[in-house]
Recover the amino acids of this structure.
C-alpha cells in the first residue's frame, strides 16, 4: 500500500490533517501518521509518492534518537503492538509510517537553520543583502557555505498559505525573549550535530526546519526532523558553489513545478511518472545513506 487515505480510519478521531501528516487522538496521546502526500510551495500536490511516508517517518525516528542528548522529543513508541487497541487493528497500514506521541502544545514559529545560502535565502540576499534581517558579507555565491549557520524562523501557515520569514526580533515579540533564545540555541545545536553526521555519509544538509512544542513547561522537539520534506540535501561529491545543486530531496519536484509555469496556487499540477519514481528512489537513498539500512 502506498497511501493512507483518511477514509480508511473513519472510526478514529482525526484531530488534524496536515499537508503530509494525519493526527489522531488516543485520549492520553496522539497518533501521527505520515502519508505519501507531497507538499511543494505550501500546496499539497494531487499525486502520491509511493513509500514516501514510511521513509519520512523512519528518518525522523532515526534523528530523534540521535538528538536525545540535546533535547527531548515527543515520541512514545513506533511499535504498533504497543498502540491503543483501536489502532492495532490497522497495524499493516500503520507499520513504519506512524508514531505514538506525547500531547505537546506546538509553538507558533517554525525554526529554520541555514548552513548554506540557497532557495529563498539566496533570493533575499541577492535583493536585499540579508536573510531575515541578518546582514551577510558581499560577494557570496549561490550555494556558498555560510561562516556560521543562520537561525531564520518563520510563522506557521495554514494549509494552502505560505510561511512568512520573520526576524529574530519579531520572534521575540511573538513568544518572548527567553523562549526565542532557547529555540535558537536548540535549533543550531541540532543542525550542527546532524549536518556533521550527514557530511560523514556524503550528504550536505544545506538547510532544514524544526518544530518545537511545550510539554510540562519544557520545550521539546516535535513533528519531523531533518527529512527530505523539511530539508535540502545535497550530494557532497557533486557540490560546487556558484550554482544550484543536485538534490537528494524534493528539489526535483520543485524544479519541475517551477519550469512548468505553475502559479504556485492550489490545485497543483499532476506530476510526470518519472518525477514520481525518481522522488521515491531519492527518498529511499537518503535513508539508506544515513542509516545504512534499507526501507
Amino acid at each position: 500500500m502506498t497511501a493512507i487515505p483518511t477514509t480508511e480510519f473513519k472510526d478514529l478521531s482525526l484531530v488534524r490533517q496536515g499537508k503530509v501528516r494525519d493526527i489522531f487522538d488516543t485520549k492520553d496521546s496522539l497518533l501521527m501518521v505520515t502519508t505519501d502526500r507531497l507538499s511543494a510551495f505550501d500546496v499539497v500536490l494531487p499525486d502520491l509518492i509511493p513509500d514516501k511516508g514510511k521513509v519520512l517517518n523512519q528518518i525522523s525516528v532515526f534523528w530523534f534518537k540521535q538528538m536525545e542528548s540535546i533535547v527531548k522529543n515527543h515520541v512514545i513508541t513506533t511499535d504498533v503492538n504497543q498502540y491503543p487497541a483501536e489502532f492495532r487493528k490497522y497495524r499493516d497500514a500503520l507499520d513504519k509510517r506512524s508514531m505514538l506521541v506525547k500531547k505537546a502544545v506546538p509553538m507558533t514559529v517554525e525554526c529554520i537553520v541555514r548552513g548554506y545560502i540557497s532557495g529563498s535565502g539566496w533570493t533575499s540576499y541577492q535583493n536585499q543583502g540579508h536573510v531575515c534581517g541578518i546582514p551577510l558579507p558581499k560577494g557570496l555565491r549561490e550555494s556558498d557555505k555560510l561562516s556560521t549557520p543562520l537561525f531564520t524562523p518563520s510563522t506557521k501557515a495554514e494549509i494552502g498559505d505560505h510561511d512568512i520569514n520573520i526576524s529574530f526580533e519579531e520572534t521575540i515579540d511573538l513568544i518572548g525573549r527567553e523562549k526565542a533564545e532557547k529555540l535558537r540555541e536548540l535549533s543550531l545545536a541540532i543542525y550542527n550535530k546532524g549536518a556533521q553526521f550527514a557530511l560523514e555519509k556524503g550528504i550536505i544538509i544545506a538547510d532544514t526546519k524544526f518544530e518545537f512544542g511545550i510539554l510540562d513547561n519544557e520545550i521539546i522537539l516535535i513533528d519531523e526532523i531533518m527529512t527530505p520534506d523539511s530539508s535540502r540535501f545535497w550530494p557532497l561529491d557533486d557540490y560546487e558553489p556558484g550554482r544550484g545543486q543536485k538534490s537528494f530531496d524534493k528539489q526535483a519536484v520543485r524544479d519541475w513545478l517551477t519550469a512548468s509555469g505553475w502559479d504556485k496556487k492550489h490545485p497543483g499540477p499532476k506530476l510526470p511518472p518519472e518525477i514520481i519514481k525518481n522522488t521515491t528512489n531519492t527518498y529511499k537513498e537518503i535513508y539508506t545513506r544515513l542509516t545504512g539500512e534499507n526501507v
